[in-house]
Amino acid sequence: MAGTNPERGRPGYEPVGIPQVSVGGVGESGGYTVDLDGAPRLLQALREARAKLAELSDLHKDLRYVPMPDGDPYSIAACDVIMRRLGDEPGGYAWANKAGIAQLDTLIEKLETSPKIYRDAEERNRRKFGRGV
Predict the structure, then answer these.
(1) For residue 54, which of 101, 88, 123, 119 has the smallest C-alpha distance?
(2) How many domains does the chain have?
(3) SS3 string of 16-68?
(4) Has residue 60 been placed in a domain?
(5) Is residue 14 one of the residues assigned to a domain?
(6) Greatest CA span in the chain, whole angstroms?
(7) What is the pLDDT of residues 17-73, one digit of tens each?
(8) H/E stretch holding 5
(9) Structural contact between residues 86 and 64, judged by C-beta atoms closer than 8 angstroms
């Protein structure tokens, strides 16, 4: 259910229709299932999410290089912590973005190949069982 913006009297956000994906298992080996008709929409949504994350990953570059304050040890320490938190160290903003982009790339690649693998298996089964073998 969409939230309501009381000032404007309309939803605070618009829900987006995303195809259903079941992660972790309908089969004995786990995995995921995708509605083949919804796969293109899901892939498009994942590509858009990846593009947005890549766009945001550049944001940290401008924020990391702020001039250090002179003489105030607390401000210097705070700036140092902020720059490390935005950086490439494990747990940092840039590190997390790179990991998120890599995970989206892997998922997109798997979803791009899954429909073809499924259709190929279905075709083999159709040929095999269609002949009564």
Answers:
(1) 101
(2) 1
(3) CCCCCEEECCCCCCCCEEECCCCHHHHHHHHHHHHHHHHHHHCHHHHHHCCCC
(4) yes
(5) no
(6) 85
(7) 544 444 444 555 555 565 677 778 888 999 999 999 888 877 767 776 667 778 888
(8) strand 4-5
(9) yes
In-domain check, residue 109: yes
Element (H, E) at 11: strand 10-11
* CATH code for the domain of 79: 1.10.287
Q: d(Cα 120, Cα 111) in Å, to the nearest integer?
A: 15
Q: Cα(8)–Cα(100) distance, rounded to whole angstroms?
A: 35
**pTM confidence score:** 0.59
> CB within 8 A of 105, min separation 6: which ones?
50
Does residue 18 belong to any structural domain of this protein?
no
Q: Which domain holds residue 74?
A: 36-130
